[in-house]
């Protein structure tokens, strides 16, 4: 079965170009002009990925992204944000809300298709780890289900956040460079930057502190990377 995508874009010309390009790649595309229509489609069907415009007639596309990341069944759905706003603050906001990629208009349709296929490839279950990691201090990593518990409570993580935290946990006590974390969470063919890692680490820290206000276990090593610090007994 071809991957099924939801495109939320209010410009008909852009939508036609995107649909034509993606369908030539063998993908199935449903198109919505409005956020309200997109919400209805999401309630009715499963989509393997979303391409989401920001400026829409009935609201901001990032509102829908926020809703997706708060919905347990859709937290891991890959989302590519497509927007005329290419400023750093817009990209950072989209990433902080859980976007997997960001493309600014005007864009190359072929590049967009390549990025979408990359998202789908990295979201494939075949990319998931197959061995379970035992309890490590306050953490329990269910690598098969790609779920993480902290102090006995489930963490609401996006796919990227989960992969980052799982990588840090597997190498607890060791400093991980930003490049190695990018490769672990985004893949070697990612165009993401160091700032992407910094943004996701910031969000991870906030989610850990929401459960344990005193948690400060992810340490920044300036110029080197990040380390997850656990008690020696927990690291074995």
From TrEMBL:
PANTHER family: REGULATOR OF RPOS, TRANSCRIPTIONAL REGULATORY PROTEIN CREB
A cellular-component GO term for this protein: cytosol
Molecular function (Gene Ontology), one example: phosphorelay response regulator activity
A Pfam short name: Response_reg
Protein name: Two-component system response regulator CreB
UniProt domain OmpR/PhoB-type: residue ranges: 131-230
Chain positions found as 4-aspartylphosphate: 53
GO biological process: regulation of DNA-templated transcription
DNA-binding annotation, residue ranges on this chain: 131-230
Domain Response regulatory, first and last residues per copy: 4-120
SUPFAM superfamilies reported for this sequence: C-terminal effector domain of the bipartite response regulators, CheY-like
PROSITE patterns, A to Z: OMPR_PHOB (PS51755), RESPONSE_REGULATORY (PS50110)
Matches recorded under NCBIfam families: PRK11083.1 (NF008296)
InterPro entries the UniProt entry points to: CheY-like_superfamily, OmpR/PhoB-type_DNA-bd, Sig_transdc_resp-reg_C-effctor, Sig_transdc_resp-reg_receiver, WalR-like, WH-like_DNA-bd_sf
Gene: creB
Keyword tags: DNA-binding, Phosphoprotein
């Amino acid at each position: 079965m071809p991957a099924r995508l939801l495109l939320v874009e209010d410009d008909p010309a852009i939508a036609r170009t995107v649909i034509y390009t993606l369908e030539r790649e063998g993908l199935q595309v449903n198109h919505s002009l409005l956020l309200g229509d997109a919400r209805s489609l999401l309630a009715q069907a499963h989509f393997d990925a979303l391409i989401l415009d920001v400026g829409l007639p009935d609201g901001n596309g990032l509102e829908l992204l926020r809703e997706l990341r708060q919905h347990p069944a859709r937290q891991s759905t890959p989302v590519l944000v497509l927007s005329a706003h290419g400023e750093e603050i817009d990209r950072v906001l989209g990433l902080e809300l859980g976007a997997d990629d960001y493309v600014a208009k005007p864009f190359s349709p072929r590049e967009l298709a390549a990025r979408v296929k990359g998202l789908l490839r990295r979201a494939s279950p075949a990319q998931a780890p197959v061995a379970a990691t035992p309890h490590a201090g306050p953490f329990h990593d269910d690598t098969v289900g790609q779920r993480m518990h902290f102090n006995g409570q489930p963490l609401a993580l996006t796919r990227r956040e989960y992969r980052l935290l799982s990588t840090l946990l597997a190498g607890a006590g060791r400093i991980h460079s930003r490049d190695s974390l990018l490769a672990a969470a985004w893949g070697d063919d990612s165009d993401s930057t160091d700032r992407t890692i910094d943004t996701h680490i910031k969000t991870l820290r906030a989610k850990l502190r929401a459960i344990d206000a005193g948690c400060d276990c992810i340490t920044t090593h300036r110029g080197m990377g990040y380390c997850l610090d656990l008690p020696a007994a927990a690291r074995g």
